[in-house]
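Predict structure. Chain length: 213.
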Amino acid sequence: MKKALFLLLALMLVGCSGEGAEKEKEKNVKEEEVVQEEKIVPVKYDEVDTESKAAVEKFVQKYNVRVDLYKQDAENSITLEKIPEPVTGDLMKEDDILSQTLLEADFIKYKGHYKIVAKYNEDKKLIGYNIFVEGSPASEVSEEGDEWEEGFLSAMSITDAIGLNLDKNEEELGKALDEEKQSHTYTDSNYNVTFLLADLDLGQFEVNYDLAN
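Prediction complete.
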């Protein structure tokens, strides 16, 4: 009987200890979230440099024109979301970088989503763009790659909208994939383009378009 009581007490103590540890873990996570939120500061779009505003608005117009071309393709019509116009969204400052979400959308035909961001420096001047794409894992993608097509076409639309060579972009991406690189950077015009492909097997990839100084 005593043995059973000791065992029950021990189990209760272990349970209490585990519960305490779990509560402490939850507390630490919440504190980290608060710190993270404090680091992210909203900045009004009105404060952005006038020349940068004009550049972003021109970019959005060109991106949307490209999206229309994909939709109007008689042989292979593909619908992508347009970036809302006019651009009005606030910037979010984290450390020394300010980012402005221009578009966050789900794939229309397949499972996946993507996010397009304009990037600014501390002086609120445009320094480039970024697209993050997450679709089906590589193991679930057909040989044609249709499941990732909307993400790749959105990235191509950015490439075209900022005036870069699409053939060169495709060639450099092909090189990165053939050599199984986790990241690959090339320069075209006044942009450094970086493909981030470390998590491609998971269906995630990212492209940075950074203005070269």
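Summary: Residues 120 and 126 are 4 Å apart (CA to CA).
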